[in-house]
Amino acid sequence: SVPLSFFGGVSAASRNGILVKGSNFLEVLNQVSVVAFDKTGTLTKGQFEVSQVLPVSGVSEAKLTGYTAAAEQQSTHPIAQSIVSAFPVDKTTYRVTQSTETAGHGVAALINGVQVVVGNAKALDANGIAVSELQTVETVVYVALDGVYAGAITVADQPKPDAQTAIADLKKHGVNETWMLTGDSEPVADAIGTEIGVTNVAAGLLPEQKVGIVDQLTTAAHAKNGKVAFVGDGINDTPVLARADVGIAMGGLGSDAAIEAADVVIMDDQPSKVMTAMTIARHTKVIVW
Ligand code: ADP
Ligand code: MG
């Protein structure tokens, strides 16, 4: 049987813009000892801005940005959206006849008969294209045209305004282990992780590797009678939401699939609402028991 006041907790949560799909998740929230966050769209705004266009010699900026934006038009990833809005595509000039998107990598497309690959270093590597990685704390989108490295476009995202407070509050309330999991590169992840104050960062992860880390964290937490919460926006992380003891989705930016897979949905996408949900769960328990 469910204590009556857990129902009170569910409605208190909903008044705070937090949808809890069943009072049992308040009990799980009460036991959370580790919180793992996705980076893009969860701890950061998920709104990238283009900062540098770096073609190799012999390739014009227009050619680099044109092919890149035409390829990115096939993707809904926040990085893709930033590039398409910075470099609007003239569809009569760039004809896309084939395209495939690979989660955690990028996009490959056939455009005007040119084989275009855009994405991180792993994406180019997977296509057999050598690239020397730029040393920067911005996210780098590498570009290859017909199998030859053609340059890069760097984009940058920013932490959400309450990201740092969200982590500090969790620590203050005894959640001493906080993770940021990301498919982005290590220098970018470390810089943002340090700024926000998470205790652990794992970078360069494919979606299935995020599932693997959450599995490991869960095993370790359960051995100490704790539980693991994973917080994500659902872009490529729906399986992780489903796997954690409690999956928390950002409901605004998040996809329908994420909202479906999650146990708790934060309607306004603020990471500080994780602590709000845990506080409501704790008070609910205190009142009843
Ligand atoms: P995160 O873990 O930060 O939410 P994703 O798993 O969605 O990120 O993507 C991981 C990385 O894969 C990105 O940081 C980027 O380097 C690359 N990537 C994925 N999709 C695209 C795309 N459409 N264009 C360029 N790069 C991409
Ligand atoms: Mg993501």
TrEMBL record:
Subcellular compartments: Cell membrane; Membrane
Ranges in coiled-coil conformation: none
Family that this chain belongs to: Belongs to the cation transport ATPase (P-type) (TC 3.A.3) family. Type IB subfamily.
Descriptive protein name: Cd(2+)-exporting ATPase
Organism: Secundilactobacillus paracollinoides
